[in-house]
Amino acid sequence: PEPVYGLTDADLTRMDHYLVALAGNDQTTRRALGLSMLGVGAMAAAATTGLMLDSKTRHDSPVGISSLGFLSAGLLTTGLYYNLTKSPGARALESFRLELATRRADPAQLFVRTEGWLQRLDAQERARRKTMFWVFEGLGLALVSAATVTAIAPPKDATNPYVGPAILYTEGAFIAALGIFMLSQPTPNERI
Q1: 11, 65, 86, 126: which is deepest, by most CB within 10 A?
Q2: pLDDT of residue 81
Q3: Concatenated DSSP letters for 10-58?
């Protein structure tokens, strides 16, 4: 048979199905990450509250407690943002369908533009995954280091000198494990 050039309706339908799958995976990943950030942020907020309730710790470590409070606020805010906004995949599907429905763009150009956007998105997601891994590993290491310093040289008149380090060790391990989990997860494009 003679080769056929151009774009068919089947090609557009396949792209739509691909974008639907991508949007679903992307949104699921975004929600899971958002919920994880909310969980870690809630743990950090609980630790901050617990440390603030101990008047000696509050007096001895105001910078550490403030840092933990800012960390919890940042994680809670980011977690809420991730859970309340659309993922890039969902926005791409919405844009593709809108442009196709209104026929503002030539379908072939729309297809090529969408394919190029998907390739750039995949590269961004891989870079973001690696960056998040290292951020979480660094944060986990910082928490474990702070816990070790506090455990080795606890304040002399602390009522319970091991509560703070125990909480920090737990959070550091959890955050480092979360970073490893993020790195192990395929991007939505890789899953599809």
Answers
A1: 65
A2: 95
A3: HHHHHHHHHHHHHHHHHHHHHHHHHHHHHHHHHHHHHHHHHHHHSHHHH
